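Batch manifest line 457
LIGAND: aspartic acid
JOB: complex structure
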Amino acid sequence: MIVMKFGGTSVQDAPAITRVAEIVAGRLKQQPTVVVSAFARVTDTLLATARAAGSGDGGRALQLSRELRERHYNVAGELLGTGLFTHFHSELEQDFDALDELLRGIAAVGELTPRTSDLVVSYGERLSSKIVHAAFLACGLPARLVDARQCIVTDATHTRAVPQVDETNEQLQRRLQPALAAGTVPVLGGFIGATRAGVTTTIGRGGSDFSAALVGAGLGAERIEIWTDVDGMMTTDPALCPDAHRIRQISFEEAAELSYFGAKVLHPATVVPAIQKNIPVYILNSRNPECEGTRITARGARCRNVFKAIGAKKRITIVDVVATRMLMAHGFLRSIFEVFDRHRCPVDVVSTSEVSVSLTVDSNEAIPAVAADLAALGDVKYEGRKAIVCLVGDNLRGTPGIAARTFNTLGDINVRMISQGASEINLTFVIDEDDVPEAVRRLHAAFFADLDPEVFA
Ligand code: ASP
Ligand code: MG
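JOB STATUS: finished
ARTIFACT:
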């Protein structure tokens, strides 16, 4: 069997859902289980709705809910046609009436708990899965609706509940296996689950990928397909470099390194359950289903090129701390990191010498306060408008001369910090934000001119 997960943009309206039905119909032989996100932007709207109710603004909450109701009715109506929709309508109506009652209750109390927030937000995936299921039936697909809350068993950490793997696997077997054996396509919402006691939970934003990985791992899927609205992962941002190519195969570790650089396609941490079981994960485009996408596997394929991709992240600030008087003293780094920790300011790249430390952080308002605290430890300077550029590839391990080639290629571009990551698969440096397009173009021309056709499209 396989798992096919469709993200919010892949189910954003009736034409998108029709495309999904066609894609699934083309894979019936492979026994798909379908996991869907809420329609695009619905989770955000539900959160805003819940917050409005929590602040006592019931009017605003009900207004937002009315808009959601209209959108879901319209999509379902368009997909099902008048005849079928008349029948289905009352089911959606019940859900929205229950949601409105819940919102009135929250507004009356004027307090939103994480538990209630999860219940409100769960309507996104509950509704999308119902509508997708109805649409499948309407076009003759033998689908079966499954309530994800009966499959994904979590703890009670609301808004980021932790799935309990053994119990979840047991429920998945129990609820999905018979449906698959009967030749039907189970359809369930991602992102939501329930505690053992049956209280609705959510497993963290973007959690539908995680749901898909859990389902795939629990049922021993041959593959997991994450359907989105891009062709896959690219060698670099095509907006920076029009020569960017699609990556056909990448290792999990490489994908994880790149995820930091705005590869918004998928957060690799969410597919760990699949990778641990050696199940390949594919990124595919529901607007361009012919494209073979990007395949992510535990161990990467052999590749002629040193690197798989170049990532770049702007809006970075460098913080330099120089402390001659700390020469040879221990505990210096710890005192520095404690300051960042106190301000909840995550540090990305670090390079040190005997008397100085340079660190990068995402530009944010906390930096002046951080710098003021650091001043107790040494002379502090900080400078914004910097960017992190990162070259990623398994082959960096054990290929000599790459650093020299990289910095030769950069030529006259001023490099402010360098770090070769502990993972041994990334070479990272910091430059001025304005130099990013030129740096990426030069590096891409140097390292991606002659591409291994097995690995790049
Ligand atoms: N709908 C949820 C969210 O927007 C989960 C998902 O789409 O992955 O975060
Ligand atoms: Mg997503």
